[in-house]
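DM from R.C. (forwarded with permission)

"hey, sorry to bug you on a friday — could you get me a structure for this? deadline for the figure draft is monday and I only need the backbone to look sensible"
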Amino acid sequence: MKNIGMGTGRRKTAVARVFIREGNGKLLVNDQEASSYFATPEQVQVVRQPLMVTASDTKFDVVITVYGGGLNGQAGACSHGISRALAQIDLGNRVSLKANGLLTRDSRMVERKKYGQRSARRRFQFSKR
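My reply, with the result:
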């Protein structure tokens, strides 16, 4: 089957490559059904949100390859990738996706650990005496 839309989604350290094909609403993540891949129904809901907003949850089959990060970050990356692919397919989708904040890349990342400190912001315990 031919891909009609592609998108790359990112969240924290997770990266999702999304391929959209014409079909009847199948959602595969790393060759598994989305409901069996993700641990909670909330994560599946996050992934399906762009399809629900554009009312195209039964029009397309979505195949996602995702790696890096944890399951929450991967769910966010999948959502971002699906949104980008749907915006590429039909420009009318872009308005509703943008209004729901689904095209915006969530740029929050883990702050790096600094030398001379225990973690990113936590200092070692200070003793006067």
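R.C.: lifesaver. The helical segments are 34-37, 41-53, 71-89, 91-99.
me: no worries. DSSP finds four helices and five strands in the chain.
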